[in-house]
Amino acid sequence: MIAGMEDARNARSDERRDAAMTEKDRDTCALVETTDVLIIGAGPAGLWAMFEAGVIGLRCVALDALDRVGGQCTELYPDKPIYDIPAVPRCSAQDLVDRLLEQCAPFGFPIHLGQRADALERVGERWRVTSREGRIFDTAAVMIAAGNGAFEPQRVALPEAASLEGRSLHYAVRQAERFRGRRVLIAGGGDSALDWALALRGIATHITLLHRRANFRAAPATAAAVKAAEQAGQIDFVVGTLDALHETADVLTGARVKTLEGERELAFDELIALFGLVPDLGPIAGWPLDARAGRIPVDTSNYETALPGVFAIGDIALYDNKQKLILSAFHEGSLALRKAYAYAFPDRQRTHVHSSYDTALQKKLGQPTA
Ligand SMILES: Cc1cc2nc3c(=O)[nH]c(=O)nc-3n(C[C@H](O)[C@H](O)[C@H](O)COP(=O)(O)OP(=O)(O)OC[C@H]3O[C@@H](n4cnc5c(N)ncnc54)[C@H](O)[C@@H]3O)c2cc1C
């Protein structure tokens, strides 16, 4: 692709977007990010779709509700080996994600993390997606690669928990320093809970780890380190479950805990609840896409949904004989992107050039041209 031609294409795309804008939109224009394809979800399906967007010459932006890319691979089984990726006899799930990121890196497309797509709106012939966090994306096509939904923390099931969230009740640790000089209760028995119990030693003034069983669901080495820290008096470990949270003048002061022996009071300033993540399709389930049990029906010739220019790929796509496999997600993304091209550039005919012969692509990828 000659640079001038690409500029002209982008200018035409911008013209179409501008025509679709209302006056109010123009006022908020600075807040709107414009692209050819918006990819919702940066799991394997979304990351591969980013690469394919770059290959066929589309601009692309991705977002993910989580604060890191990789979807299920990173969240659920990073260290497990995968054996069924073509031409890759064995790699860990995290390794696969790292390789996908490396593959799409030359295009420099932005990935907005910690952004959950909440609203979908038709604006002229384009789509507008708004995130829960307030970002607005104006796009010719939408690629829903949302897997089983956005992973959300499993919350404390007590009525008083909601009002404490974001103040003294935390579902993730963004900055360890936030807990300096505080008495902290960490609830949970998985890797995250144990890792943070260990990491906050020397930062928090007191750490109590609360888990419903004496055994942990964590890596044996981490569990052994926690037991050693308990014996050294660095961490208190309590077997039990939260029964009530106590507040005085809107300030968290402690909790009543149910243990095998009965009830017990614990005093602390901050509660970090790390019970794991649960997938939640959230507002996408309410988009007019005929979602069934959290999955979106598609046309298998191009993975388009019932809405023109809105595609569903990866685990979220629903069709006869669909297999929830990374291999299938790659195929679906490749076909969907080619149809998405027609929405971004309806007046252009795309000619396919194999990557082995595509010198323009090779340049974009920073490779010596063949
Ligand atoms: C334990 C385990 C082992 C597996 N082993 C294999 C294997 O060996 N081989 C194989 O092929 N497959 C395997 N799979 C399946 C494979 O991981 C999935 O098929 C694959 O992850 C699907 O990719 P995806 O991108 O469609 O969805 P996901 O990986 O689920 O990614 C979806 C992403 O979308 C984000 N998201 C969702 N909703 C929103 C929203 N509204 N806004 C913003 N972001 C959102 C999520 O946060 C998530 O990051 C395994 C799965 C598990 C659980």
From TrEMBL:
Keyword Oxidoreductase listed: yes
Record's signal peptide: none
Annotated region (Disordered), positions in chain: 1-25
Pfam families in the cross-refs: Pyr_redox_2
Catalytic activity: 2 reduced [2Fe-2S]-[ferredoxin] + NADP(+) + H(+) = 2 oxidized [2Fe-2S]-[ferredoxin] + NADPH
Needed co-factor(s): FAD
Ranges where the FAD/NAD(P)-binding domain occurs: 36-333
EC supergroup of this enzyme: oxidoreductase
Cofactor note: Binds 1 FAD per subunit.
Designated name of the protein: Ferredoxin--NADP reductase
